[in-house]
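Researcher: Hi, I'm a grad student and pretty new to this. My advisor asked me to get structures for two proteins we've been looking at. I'm not sure of the right format, so I'll just paste the first sequence and hope you can take it from there.
Model: That works fine. Here's the first sequence with its structure tokens right after it:
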Amino acid sequence: MLGKKRKLGKKIQDLKVGDCYTSSFSIEDKELLMYLGLTDDANPLYIQHDYASETPYTRPIVPSVMIFGKVSSIISMHLPGPGSHIFKQELDYPKPLFHYSEVKITAEISLIHKKDHYIDVVIIGYDEEGEEVVSGKVSVRPPYEPKSMNASSLENFY
């Protein structure tokens, strides 16, 4: 990523209520194993088919934090984009997400608080069966306008 020029995301003055972004993805074994290894999480509900088959879920599920990771990626890479920070989240996960399920998550700006420099973004996500797997909102600070374009911390941004 270093050496590659990237633009900062949209500043608060460039955003409007109703702006939205939608992303589709599925959680594959490699992402799941990387997460479990990184966090040292060995919950059998996430990885053991024999255990999961004995639960009401009937098969392994994706950790909710991985779904939130995709939400975070939408915010930090697309809406508002690089330089953004989620400082509050209120998300529900009404239905478990199973391995390999196709998910579509939409983020839509619902409120802009210019004075306090943050936005509220409504999140809704559905699996391929059209069932809700995540819903709620996140509060986000969009990128700040740099004080100096000569700052060395911005050498990879323009």
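Researcher: Oh nice, that was easy. Here's the second one.
Model: And its structure:
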Amino acid sequence: MKKFVNGKVVLRYLYDQLTGNFAGFLIGMSASSLVSKFFETRSIKNLWGLTAKKTVVDKATFSNLEWILSIVIGFIVFEIFTKVIKEKIDKNFPRYKIRVMRWMIVNHIPEKASAIGLKLNQQRIALFAAVHQAVVKTKK
């Protein structure tokens, strides 16, 4: 099992999920606001539809339209990412990999990430010690 699960396999899986599923999901969710540009529901702000400037639909129809639109647009974006953009990134990544690595070294990214990790560990230890101390005091 260990020879099948290594850092490269995990990073590749995360990369695939990020470029396809997650991007499609985010764009699909943000597309649900697209429905509100064309439709609105009856509410007090538009006097229950009397002063509406858009097409008025009931709340169930509005939520169904949002749901359907977010799924359709999310799926389309997912397909575009997995078929077109991901292939271009995979083809061009080796060319830009050296540039990215040089940029990271020039901007001291590994050192900054290490410092952030150490600081987070110190904060975790301080939090654990404080919680442990509070639990011990309450037991006495």
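Researcher: Is there anything I should tell my advisor about the second?
Model: You could mention this: The first helix runs from residue 7 to 31.
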